[in-house]
Design a protein that fits this description.
alpha+beta; Alpha-Beta Plaits; SH3 type barrels; 2 domains; five-stranded antiparallel sheet; four-stranded antiparallel sheet; 12 strands
Amino acid sequence: MAKKEKSMEEQLNEDKALEKEEMALAETAENEKKQAKKNQKRWYIVHTVTGHENKVKVNLEKRIEYMNMSEKIFRVEVPQKTVTQVKAGGKKQEREEKIFPGYVLVEMIMDEDSWYVVRHTAGVTKFVGSAKKPIPARDSEIKKIINRSSSQTEKVELDVKAGDKVRIISGPFADFIADIIEVYPDKYKLRANVSIFGRETPVELEYKQINKL
């Protein structure tokens, strides 16, 4: 028995159904792609009250814990670097200095819940970006910031400056009073004028050779 051929109308209906099915699959794939992108964790920059960066970090980490948001908010970072301050006589003091005062970095999956937890943390003023649509930071930028904060490079600060008077405590000019001309923090040295026989003579000194007056 010969197989009955499909009418043109039946063929058109099948083609429409197939086209509709393909469109539905494409739409599903697009939605899944959007959802995957939406669920991707990214770094966001949060503006805080200046001087409260570490408090914001502590407060936010507590909120993440008791609001069970650890699957959406992963890391909170306050980029810092080590600053070594050298006092007269060569005594060193280290302290942490914020690289970007007034800002905290948060790695998170952005949605209404995670936005609410971060935005309503004490000390947070806003996300970088529009009020309801924060802009994620570029991964390359965040990598540079984190590498910079974890670097062992130190910024040296001397607690004297050009124009200060100091007493030389060692070397051939010990007990002389000197006027600082220039300071070289990275070398722990300075240039100063010393009065010898009534004439100002420039000398180079190490920082451990002086005491502030």
